Amino acid sequence: MQVAVQTAPNPTSLASHGPCRIGIVAFRRPVFWSSRNTSDSPLSQMPPSPAASQSPLMKILTAPNGCDPAPHGTTLSLSRMQCEDPHMSARINHVSINARDLQESVGFYVDLLGAELLPSPNFGLPVVWLALGRTQLHLFERDLQPTSHHHLGITVDDLEPVYRAAERRDAFDREAFRNHLVELPGDVVQLYLRDPAGNLVEIDHHGVDRLPADLRAQLKGVWEFNPQSDEHMRGRLFVPD
Predict the structure, then answer these.
(1) Within a domain: 176
(2) Helix runs in the chain, H state only
(3) Which residues of 38-111 form beta strands (DSSP E)?
(4) Is 4 inside any structural domain?
(5) Gyration radius (Cα) of the chain, Å
(6) Taking Cα atoms as reference points, which of 193, 220, 165 lies closest to residue 97?
(7) Model confidence, pTM
(8) Could you tell me which residue, 65 or 120, shows the higher pLDDT?
């Protein structure tokens, strides 16, 4: 897992991040670190801004437990960001999206993904919590207009049942990424849908060959829409095979 640390909008807020503080200021472009060298990457050719080397806030990358700032031109790995502290970790525990009709949206996610209803606190507005594996999906009832490309991605073991359920609901989105079924480098398939509130939902599955013939016939590679360099083709979505 690679972590990009970008310019901090409020540098003073970085001072309270505990024994290992991660941040960077005074750079005009993203800067990457790592415990392994990536000098062959184009990112390593990006020089820091002159102001960065003069900034005393560069020292914020050195923590009391002995973590040293990594040199320019490398990429920060999660293990280095944790300063080799196994107790420090981060993962997304839920995503919250709007529903114009809670019952309709709940039915959609239960039907397509087998989402499970969970108890939820009272937030003063209609809210439903759903379980999707170890992650939660939170729905709140508000009449909001979804954006064109903002979306959530959900991994499934088998795409076909989700596809069939979406087909019955006429839920495919063919506009945002130019097809409803898209192949990514690394043998990953994406299915794009719209839920009843219009939110864009991406369903991910590993293995083109595991799809039935009628779905493979509709599949288009991302390279058919946009030119891909060798660097682009090395991109991998975290979808287990």
Answers:
(1) yes
(2) 50-54, 78-81, 102-113, 159-169, 213-216, 230-233
(3) 74-75, 94-99
(4) no
(5) 22
(6) 193
(7) 0.66
(8) 120
